C-alpha cells in the first residue's frame, strides 16, 4: 500500500499491483509535487499519467486540484488496480483508465494535456522512450509541463524539439526530469 501525500485526498491509502511495477517512493513524489505546486501546474490541469502502475501520480494530481486524469497502463492487473483506486477515492468522474501501451495510445488520441507524468520501467530502451516523447509532443497544450521519472543510470535521452528541460534532479537511483512545452525559462 502507498498513500496520497497531500490535497483533498491526503493520507488516503491506495493499492499497488502485486508485481510488475515500481511504485514511486513518498520522498520522490513529495519532491515532484512540491515543484509542481510551486509552478502552479496542478490547479485545473488535464493530466496524463503514462505507464501509470497504481495510478499514484495521477491520483496525487487529482487530490491537489487537477480537473481530470487519464491513466494509461498496458498491464491488465495494474489497470484494474487503478480503476479500483479511483473508485475507492471517489474520483471515477475525473479519472479515465486506458489499458493500452503508451505509443499506440498517443498515436490514436486527439486529447491534449496540461501536465504529463511519465514513469516507465527503468529497463525501457532509450529509443523507445524517445519515441513516446515524440508522439506526446503534438498532444501537449500550450505551456504544458512534462515530468519524467526514470533511472539515473540511463543514457542521455533525446527530447523532441519544443520540449525544453527545465530541471533534472536525482533521488538515489531515480532521476526526475521537468520539461516545459515551448519554454526556455526555469
Account of the 3D structure:
This protein has 186 residues and is of the alpha/beta class. The chain has one domain (2-181): Rossmann fold, CATH 3.40.50. It is built from five helices and nine strands; from the N terminus they run ββαβαβαβαβαβββ. α4 runs parallel beside α5 (126-136). Keywords: Methyltransferase, Transferase.
Describe the structure in brief:
By secondary structure, the chain is of the alpha/beta class.
Keyword list:
186 residues; alpha/beta; Rossmann fold; seven-stranded mixed β-sheet; two-stranded antiparallel sheet; 30% strand
Structural class: alpha/beta
Helix count from the secondary structure assignment? 5
Write out the strand line-up for the largest beta sheet, numbering strands in chain order.
5-4-3-6-7-9-8
Uncertain parts: none
Main sheet properties: 7 strands, mixed
Q: What's the rounded overall pLDDT mean?
A: 92
SSE pattern, N- to C-terminal: EEHEHEHEHEHEEE
> What top-tier CATH class fits best?
Alpha Beta
Q: Gap between N and C termini, in Å?
A: 34 Å
The tally of domains stands at 1
| Helix content range | 25-40%
Supply the CATH superfamily name.
Answer: Vaccinia Virus protein VP39
InterPro entries: DNA_methylase_N6_adenine_CS, RNA_MeTrfase_RsmD, SAM-dependent_MTases_sf
GO molecular function: 16S rRNA (guanine(966)-N(2))-methyltransferase activity
Enzyme class: transferase
Keywords: Methyltransferase, Transferase
Amino acid at each position: 500500500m502507498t498513500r496520497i501525500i497531500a490535497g483533498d485526498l491526503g493520507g488516503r491509502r491506495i493499492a499497488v499491483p502485486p508485481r510488475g511495477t515500481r511504485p514511486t517512493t513518498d520522498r520522490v513524489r513529495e519532491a515532484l509535487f512540491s515543484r509542481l505546486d510551486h509552478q502552479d501546474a496542478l490547479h485545473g490541469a488535464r493530466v496524463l499519467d503514462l505507464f501509470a502502475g497504481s495510478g499514484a501520480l495521477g491520483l496525487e494530481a487529482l487530490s491537489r486540484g487537477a480537473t481530470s486524469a487519464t491513466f494509461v497502463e498496458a498491464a491488465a492487473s495494474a489497470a484494474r488496480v487503478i480503476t479500483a483506486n479511483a473508485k475507492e477515492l471517489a474520483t471515477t468522474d475525473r479519472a479515465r483508465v486506458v489499458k493500452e501501451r503508451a505509443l499506440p495510445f498517443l498515436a490514436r488520441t486527439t486529447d491534449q494535456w496540461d501536465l504529463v507524468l511519465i514513469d516507465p520501467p527503468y529497463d525501457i530502451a532509450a529509443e523507445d522512450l524517445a519515441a513516446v516523447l515524440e508522439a506526446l509532443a503534438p498532444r501537449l497544450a500550450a505551456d504544458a509541463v512534462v515530468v519524467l521519472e526514470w533511472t539515473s543510470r540511463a543514457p542521455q535521452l533525446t527530447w523532441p524539439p519544443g520540449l525544453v528541460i527545465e530541471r533534472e534532479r536525482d533521488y538515489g537511483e531515480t532521476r526526475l526530469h521537468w520539461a516545459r512545452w515551448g519554454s526556455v525559462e526555469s
